[in-house]
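Final report, closing paragraph on structural work. Over the funding period we assembled a curated collection of sequence-structure pairs, and we close with a single example.
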Amino acid sequence: MQTPPSTTPLHPIAAPFFQKRGYGMLAPLAAIYGGVMTLRNKAFDCGLLPTKKADVSVISVGNLAVGGTGKTPHVDYLIRLLQPAFRLGVLSRGYGRTTRGFRLVSAEEDAALVGDEPLQLKLHHPDVVVAVDENRVNGAARLQKTDRPPQLLLLDDAYQHRYIFRDVNILLTDYSRLYPLDRVLPAGRLREPISGSRRSDMIIVTKCPDSLTVAQADTIRTLLSPRPEQSLYFTTMTYGAPYALFTEQAVPSLTDKALLVVSGIAHPAPLLHHLSAQGAQVKSLNYPDHHRFSVRDAEHINRAFEDLPGKEKWAITTEKDAARLRHLRGLSDEIRNHLLVQPITVRFLLEKEEAFAQDLRKRLRNVRPATKH
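Its predicted structure, as stored:
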């Protein structure tokens, strides 16, 4: 696998990204919002708002900021790490879905009904029970009533959902958008004040450059100032070999090929940089994160593909987008025969992969291993 090149300076020496035009006007609103979230957290801390212990051990993966920090690839990593020892379940809100309430996810599901990220996880791990429910307490209880109740439940994007107790709380922060350099909404991107980071057991700095040094990691550690009981790790995103979405054909080298990149993710720039570095002649169609593709979008994609120069041309998308595109009506046969998927996975840096695994297992020492799958 290839690691995406870094296009971002080390953030501890970069200007905070809330230093922008309009920040002063938004600061009063941010102060009000931050105060409300502080009061909410205090209400949970003192028991005025309830936190319920589920009948299963829980790992939560989330972040302080809105936008992509790589939560789903990290949940995917945890599944691969833990599935040999535990019968796992995954519970997500199912962001962007048209349904409400509890729903089990099947591999044949339309992403519009369950959300693209839960469907992506189910397609990767068909033996793992994946469900969606905006009420995580209810969702956890419903999962325990299924034929194969999980021994360990992974919550995707649940850091602020404090109504359910978690045995391990994992906080992600983007290397290029570290939370100490941010501000709460609407002046910045934080869902709650940075004091909320103290609730985490493990902090992972995501999307780091592959060349991250120990000295740079130490600088970030100083900035984040984790408590002694909080573990700090660093990960990078790696790109695997593309595969065809609708066909079984072999995928050629993309060097010198005209390539249409169709993406509806929060930050497509690293993907575009990676594909350009492979020698492809890249043209991109960028949609909003979690975009629900329509027949009109399909027509737009068809035309953009037809307009690519040359005879050897391909289209490519992310696995998250593929979960939404696989049932899209209106894609031409030409697109369907040439649409590739770019897998993205997580890798721990500074030779800490085994340290992370041991740390997590230690925190889960009271969870009973699976006797059969």
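The longest strand covers residues 231-239. The CA atoms of residues 12 and 219 lie 7 Å apart. We thank the funder for supporting this effort.
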